Amino acid sequence: MRFSGLSVRQLEAFEATMVAGSVSGAATALSVSQPSVSRLLQELEIDTGLSLFDRSHGRLVPTEQGLLFYGEVSKTFHGARNLIMAAQEIRELKRGVVRIGTLAALSFKIVPAAIQQLRTRFPEARTTIAVRSSTEIVSSVASRLTDVGVVDAGVSFLDTTCVATFERNSVCVMDERHPLAGRDQVRLEDFARYPFVSLGELYFRRNRDGAKLLKATAANTVADIFQSFLACALVRGGQSLAVVDPFTASFYSEFGLVLKEIELDIPFRTSILVNDRSATGAAAGKVIETMTDLIGRG
Questions:
Q1: pLDDT digits over 120-155, tens only?
Q2: For the chain, what is the mean pLDDT?
Q3: Which H, E and C letters describe the chain, residue by residue?
Q4: Is the pTM of this model over 0.90?
Q5: What are the tens digits of pLDDT across the range 206-237?
Q6: Rounded to 5 degrees, what are φ and ψ at 24?
């Protein structure tokens, strides 16, 4: 490689000679012959128009021009070594940016925990996180505006690639002072006895047990909402019950709610999506690996 007449090999030979103090020492350091080093030094002096060494008395002594030029060469090689280190850091994800789009349910604990683990291993890695609807996330991932998307597994993935899908059953949430708080499991008939906060038909009519729950709670449903965190907020301090995703329920269990298994099969399914670029990115790969482990463990 040459820079305006200068080659990297010339500069390497010059730096090695200055460091070693002799052509023979430079040749040893570079694993080349002494004549090769001498030739590179002569070419460097011709290309730069500088007299770099005083060759009198059988010794190679740097001239004033040589010393000044060595100062500049040292800066150049220091910068080059920094570039090499930067490239290694980027490969190892010590630097880099990963953009994540996620459902609200995963934004409370799973995504923050994944980012914390990422930053523990790679402190200089940066992330951006956006909480959006599944359709918005799919569109953003497909458009390469988002690297990793966590979405409802029931939506169309369009021009994205699904790398993992998870399924966890929904749970019942209630205030910690609720009469059913001592139960291990909430049965279908229990829901008909207390006010019910519903996530609506879109959430429950995907399967037979969800439809059963809608029918059983039709007369005592006090609110129809579409976000699990709102359902959790509404049951706090009262007698209402709600069936929500287990991730949101786990977060709110730290704020006066309890979560109970239900005898019904109402799965909450999520998928992780990438695009053709982020599928091979180191940053996205590390985030996906961590999130897969966290979601799998629940």
A1: 777 777 889 999 999 999 999 999 999 999 999 999
A2: 89
A3: CEECCEEHHHHHHHHHHHHHCCHHHHHHHHCCCHHHHHHHHHHHHHHHCCCCEECHHHCCEECHHHHHHHHHHHHHHHHHHHHHHHHHHHHCCCCCEEEEEECHHHHCCHHHHHHHHHHHHCCCCEEEEEECCHHHHHHHHHCCCCCEEEEECCCCCCCCEEEEEEEEECEEEEECCCCCCCCCEECHHHHCCCCEEECCHHHHCCCHHHHHHHHHCCCCEEEECCCHHHHHHHHCCCCCEEEECHHHHHHHHHHCEEEEEECCCCEEEEEEEECCCHHHCHHHHHHHHHHHHHHHHC
A4: no
A5: 999 999 999 999 999 999 998 999 999 999 99
A6: -65, -40
Domains, the chain, ordered by start: 2-91 (1.10.10.10), 97-162+274-297 (3.40.190.10), 171-265 (3.40.190.10)
Query: Which tokens in the block code for residue 188?
Result: 């279908």
Q: Which two tokens stand for residue 126?
A: 């940066």
